[in-house]
Amino acid sequence: MSFVTRGFRGRRRDEELGARLPPGQYLVNDFPVLSAGPTPRTPLSQWSLSITGEVDQPKRWSWEEFRALPTETVTRDIHCVTKWSKLDTVWEGVSVDTLLAGVETAAGYVTAFSDGGYTTNLPLEDVTGGKAWVAFAYDSQPLEPEHGGPARLLVPHLYFWKSAKWVRGLRLMAADAPGFWETYGYHMYGDPWREQRYSGD
Amino acid sequence: MVLAVPDWPGHLAGQHVDVRLTAEDGYQAQRSYSIASPPDDNERLVLTVERLDDGEVSPYLVDELRPGDRLEFRGPIGGYFVWDASMGGPLFLVAGGSGICPLMAMIRHRAASANTVPTRLLYSSRSLADVIYRDELDRQVAMDGGLHVVHTLTRAQPEGWNGHSRRIDAEMLEEVGWAPAERPLAFVCGPTPLVEAVARTLVDLGHEARRVKTERFGPTGG
Hints:
The complex is a heterodimer of chains A (201) and B (222).
Chain A lengths: L14 H4 L7 E2 L20 E6 L5 E4 H5 L4 E8 L4 E12 H5 L8 E6 L4 E5 L9 E6 L2 E2 L9 E3 L12 E7 L6 H4 L18
Parallel strand pairs in A: 1-5, 2-11
Antiparallel strand pairs in A: 2-3, 4-5, 5-8, 6-7, 6-11, 8-9, 8-10
Chain B lengths: L1 E3 L11 E7 L5 E7 L9 E3 L11 H7 L7 E6 L13 E6 L3 H13 L6 E7 L8 H10 L3 E7 L16 H7 L8 E6 L1 H13 L7 E5 L6
Parallel strand pairs in B: 6-7, 6-9, 7-8, 9-10
Antiparallel strand pairs in B: 1-4, 2-3, 2-5
């Protein structure tokens, strides 16, 4: 590293903790909220989750149908592009593998879409194979609206803007297409360990 | 904090930069700071930094950084919570505490470009001493009939204060803001509880959700 900031020492963390923090991240104990607009409030009676796009048969679940699917509880570290990381967060949700079971597709990408118009793009292989969930509970409580409730995508190995709040479906895509933040210069993939915050990283 | 940036590519009012500090052994810390200067002033960049006692980066910037030091940063970043003259108005700006910073860039840009978009700012602070840019706002209002500024002081009010002295609520938003029929463009920036409450109330009052843009500010807001 060639650039040194005169007089800066910084706060050292213990090595075990440091090893769990991607470059440029710092630890928080609370759960910060970030969103670009008002929190959508869709009644559960009007909520549904869909698999659309490049599929032979689109799929759709009402809230009751979605909640009848098998669930998993996972504990993961999460990393926000605004530099905070939170360790050992506990979520309950439905694996995206479960949602995509039996879906025939040649797609290589998905766009997650949400109430309020938010979208984000991911490679299909990053939401399959036990890597992503549609989460409806955090810390054993129903997911609060400001954190994306009733349900949000959870893709903890990528920066957290990829874990779309208020998710309403996945659109399977033949080609990658930028979502909301990606059109404003954020990275198309967003791997925190390679510090892919902005396009060109 | 005023930075001379000779090759700055320009920015939009509301964008931020990522400041990166590097210690001699390579240890790094990064934080985001809103740009408070308008895009019209391209040679120098002004960042307003709130010093957090338990912070890692802000105490360095406030206490240690001296004129002449070099600083590594990246930007401009963010393209959604921005306003420029072509987006029109009327503008309704709602700030809580240091959430005023990106909104101040918008007010300065509006003034620097002699833009006449009618603009109302509702600004919540704990006390009069906590109001950032108070003199500049007073001066701007005195010169500009199209800019209207209303303060609310939530914790302590000076003697004789006849302004608002409570948290921003629906009644205040209706009184200070624009009617939904005017289709204002709303920018809300501050701590999460304020932003959540204001954005939700604006939608409940009949404003289009897509014309209400939000940004979190403060120790945990980025």
